[in-house]
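As described in the Methods, two query proteins were run sequentially through the folding procedure within a single session, without resetting any intermediate state between them. The first query and its resulting structure tokens are shown here.
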Amino acid sequence: VDNVITNGTTIGHTDDTELLTLADGSLTLAGDLTLSDDKKITLGDEGTVVLSDVDPSTNERGTGLVIKGVLTANVGGGEVVYLKSDGQYERADNDQESTMPAVGVALEDGDGSNAKNILIYGVYKQTGLSLTRGEELYVTDNGYVTHTVPGSGHFLQRVGVALDTNIVLFMPSLDVIEHA
């Protein structure tokens, strides 16, 4: 077959000779997997999706469920965002109900025009944090997460839990209440 290379348990092509590796009942893919329109991935009985990277190597990056969306130009990586009525994502702020609920964490800096990665469920690293494992996390008034419960007059939304001093399991509740 033209340009397809097999070598023992690996399959590839001219530019990437080890794209697929078969071993011990598993398939390792060394590239991206793209499904055609209207196709799906089906997990068998007791199948799981494992997020094995619980300590991302790069600040303001993560692993998990990611969507693409346009971040406004003033959103930076690691900031918690909400979806505006114009379809762009902007920094969440617990002082303003109109900027809640937070739905994701920007994994890139926004520029107001190009689709960027937004983590909607998963693990991310923010090196400026100083958390204790197991703490519940909330949205701050400057677009980040905190273990401090917002005070009176602020809007309260749980967005995750601390896995380590600077590692967050982001799993936002969409419930937002005003703290009296």
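Immediately afterward, the second query was submitted; its sequence and tokens are:
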Amino acid sequence: MRTRWVFVKKGDKARCRLVAREFTGIDKREDPNAGTPPLAATRYLLSDSVSRGRRNKRGKLMVVDVKRAFLHGYCTRSIHIELPGEESQRGTHLGKLVRALYGTRDAPLAWLSVVKSGKKEMGFEECKVTNGVFTHPVRGLRAVVHVDDFLMSGEGHQLQWFRDHLTNTYELKVQVAGWAHGDFQELQFLGRVIRLTQTGIELEGDDRHVEMMEKELDMILC
């Protein structure tokens, strides 16, 4: 399998990532695919967080983004890749993946296995109906997991417990919002803005999706 370096610029920071180039259609298997929760799961969590007590100032929402998540999963297949640059000794050496690599079909599934195992060890229970939805019956936490993005609801100290637990293993980007004085009232999840107000929670759509639809339907000038 061939590889290449991909350069990404976010804000004033630039980074590069080695990714594999696996073509879909060669392998007809469907089992390497990993499901993701529907938008309805996010709406449920937000509605539940309000129903459980907007007046409880200890209630918070938290978004956790795990950096380089796919590299923590183990490969579910035997995959050999082209090594970059001098590592390949002019194309005479290949590498066999132990950990999953971005661009391989089963990388999301490998990471999902890590998530499920970690959640179980922490005492979470997975929803039997919807994939990627978890609850903690003792600590009162709710979670919607969309690949490497976690949307959590619960009391502040319980969310901090979860964050501290993950920090021992992963590098995280964390956002927290709440109704208490001094709390942030906005956070972003999957490109959507979640805004906490005195009357409830507003979920703002992703403008990028609108732009894509306008281009697809040739309605930019409408």
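The longest helix spans residues 107-121. We note this only descriptively and draw no conclusion about the first query from it.
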